[in-house]
């Protein structure tokens, strides 16, 4: 059973930065595509970034960076130049194959989800 636990969310001002972490069960990275999703109130869950290979939704290109540390089984999302529209609950997800496909944005591709961590960006 894969377990995922996010941390690192918080409240920041516009232009600020946060780093989200997702602690994963052993062997998760070698088995599944890993991704970050977000969901704002009243909106659908949106794929933000995935790895491997690293890929991003257009709205975060150049601002967010996804990475993973296989030694500690931790997935990261470094977020910079934050905007109010980045405000959402952020989720870590694992699923599919060990590499991410063009379907990485689809929530249905993922079998396992964390409980989420809230990010709030204020102006």
Number of helices: 1
Q: What is the succession of H and E elements?
A: EEEHEEEEEEEE
Query: Uncertain segments of ≥5 residues (pLDDT<50)?
Result: none
> What portion of residues belong to β-strands?
over 45%
Q: Which sheet architecture does the biggest sheet show?
A: 7 strands, mixed
Distance between the termini: 40 Å
Helix content class: under 10%
**Nearest-integer average pLDDT:** 96
Q: What is the overall shape?
A: globular
Content-based structural category? mainly beta
Rg, rounded, reads: 13 Å
Total beta strand runs? 11
Secondary structure elements and pairings:
Elements: E1 4-7, E2 10-13, E3 18-24, H1 28-31, E4 33-39, E5 46-51, E6 55-56, E7 64-69, E8 74-79, E9 88-95, E10 112-113, E11 117-122
Parallel strand pairs: 2-11
Antiparallel strand pairs: 1-3, 3-8, 4-5, 4-9, 5-6, 7-8, 9-10, 9-11
């Amino acid at each position: 059973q894969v377990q995922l636990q996010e941390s690192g969310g918080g409240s920041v001002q516009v232009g600020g930065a946060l780093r989200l972490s997702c602690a994963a069960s052993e062997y998760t990275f070698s088995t599944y595509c890993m991704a970050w999703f977000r969901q704002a109130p009243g909106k659908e869950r949106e794929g933000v970034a995935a790895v491997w290979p690293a890929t991003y939704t257009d709205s975060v290109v150049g601002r967010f960076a996804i990475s993973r540390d296989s030694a500690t089984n931790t997935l990261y999302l470094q977020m910079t130049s934050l905007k109010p529209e980045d405000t959402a609950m952020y989720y870590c997800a694992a699923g599919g194959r060990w590499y991410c496909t063009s379907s990485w944005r689809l929530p249905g591709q993922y079998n396992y989800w964390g409980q989420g961590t809230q990010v709030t960006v204020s102006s």
